[in-house]
Design a protein that fits this description.
This protein is α/β, with parallel strands linked by helices. The chain folds into 2 domains: about 120 residues, Rossmann fold, CATH 3.40.50; about 60 residues, no CATH class. Helices cover about 55% and strands about 15% of the residues. It has 9 helices and 7 strands; from the N terminus they run βαβααββααββαααβα. The protein is globular. The two termini are about 20 Å apart.
C-alpha cells in the first residue's frame, strides 16, 4: 500500500485533486471532515472543548462553529490547544480507516495541515497542491462569502506555501493553466514506479 498525503493551503484545490483520485477508485480520508465528526462524537474531545470554551461550544447537539473558529484563529496558542485535543484522535481514526483498506494499492489522506499536525508521518508520499496567492484569495472569498481580510488571516495562519513545497515529493500546479487531470495521472504512474513526472 502507498499512502498519499494531499496538502496545500486553503483554496489551493486539494479537494479537486482528491475527487480525481476517488474517480480512479482510490479511497480518500478527509481529515477535516473526520475531525469535525470526531469533535461531535469523541467523548475526550468533547470534554476538552467544553473545558476550554464552556458549554456553549455545543448547541443542541451541534458544534458552535463561529465560537470555535473565533477561538481557533485568534492566536497560535489557541490553535495549538485545539490541535492537541483533536489530532491524536484523528491519527488513530486514520490508522483504523487505513487498516480496513489494507488491500488497496493506493489510499490518500487530505489535510491542509498534514505537515504541521504530524500527519505527514502517517503517509509515504507528500503531494502539495500549489496555487498562486491571488487566485486562492479570490476562490475562498467566492466559496465562503468571506471578506478579503478574513481570508488573508486564515491563509497566514497556515504554514507558508514555500515551506510545504520543500517537503513535498510532488507539487501539483493548480493555476487554471496546467491540467490537474494530467498531473494526477503522471503522479500516480510515478508513484507506481512506471513513469516519470
Amino acid at each position: 500500500m502507498i499512502r498519499i498525503g494531499v496538502t496545500g493551503g486553503i483554496g489551493s484545490g486539494k479537494s479537486v485533486v482528491c475527487r480525481l483520485l476517488e474517480m480512479r477508485g482510490i479511497p480518500v480520508y478527509d481529515s477535516d471532515t473526520a475531525a469535525k465528526e470526531l469533535m461531535l462524537t469523541d467523548p475526550e474531545i468533547r470534554k476538552g472543548l467544553i473545558s476550554l470554551l464552556g458549554e456553549d461550544v455545543y448547541k443542541e447537539g451541534y458544534l458552535n462553529k463561529p465560537l470555535l473558529s473565533s477561538f481557533l484563529f485568534s492566536s497560535p496558542q489557541h490553535a495549538a490547544m485545539i490541535n492537541h485535543l483533536v489530532h491524536p484522535v484523528v491519527r488513530t481514526d486514520f490508522r483504523r480507516w487505513a487498516e480496513a483498506r489494507r488491500k488497496c494499492f493506493f489510499i490518500a489522506m487530505e489535510s491542509a495541515i498534514l505537515i504541521e499536525s504530524g500527519f505527514v508521518r502517517e503517509v509515504d508520499k507528500v503531494v502539495d497542491v500549489y496555487t498562486p496567492f491571488s487566485l486562492r484569495l479570490k476562490r475562498v472569498m467566492k466559496r465562503d462569502g468571506s471578506t478579503e481580510d478574513q481570508v488573508r488571516q486564515r491563509i497566514h495562519s497556515q504554514m507558508d506555501d514555500e515551506q510545504k513545497k520543500k517537503i513535498a515529493d510532488i507539487i501539483l500546479m493548480n493555476d487554471e493553466e496546467k491540467s490537474l487531470i494530467v498531473q494526477v495521472e503522471n503522479m500516480l504512474q510515478l508513484f507506481s514506479g512506471i513513469g516519470e513526472y
